[in-house]
Structure formats: C-alpha cells, structure tokens
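Sample log: MEIG1 protein.
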Amino acid sequence: KKSEVSGVMAKADIRPKSIHDAKKWSADVENLYRFQQSGYRDEVEYKQVKQVDTVERWPETGFVKKLQRRDNTFNYYDKQRECEDKEVHKVKVYVY
C-alpha cells in the first residue's frame, strides 16, 4: 500500500515515452512552441517545475499568454500565432 507522499512524488516526475518533431502547425504545436521558448518541454513539465495548477491563456484563442522561465523572468505572448511555418519542425512533440 503506497503512502500519500509517494503517490505525489510519482505524479511529480512524469516522463515522456517518446518524442517526435512537429510536421505542421496546430494550436497544440503553437502552445508547445511557447513552452519550449521558455525552457520547458511542455505544459506537464512547466506545472511540475513551477508547482502551478493552471497556465495563463488568451480566452479568445486558448494560446498560452504568459510563462515564467526557469530564471524567474517572464515571457509574454500575443493572441495571434507566433510559431512561423519555418519554425514548426523545431517543435518537439512529447508522447506520454
């Protein structure tokens, strides 16, 4: 029988099973781009590192609005798409 603490610890260390490069732009790829610009794999890692439950998003588009980087400075993002087509292949998509 696992204790409550070890359950929380296991949850806090989620690792991706596989990884591939994004092929075409989508809203998910846009948000991954924003997390990766700020130094994180994705929303899962961001929430683990920063110990937050939610990420600030634009209500109109659902895109990430603001992220705190590992050095505690902030990256702010526009409502519109920021990941250009030439950048899409650089985005890593993690599968859990």
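Observation: Helices lie at 4-11, 27-37, 43-50, 85-88.
Observation: Residues 1-10 have pLDDT under 50 and may be disordered.
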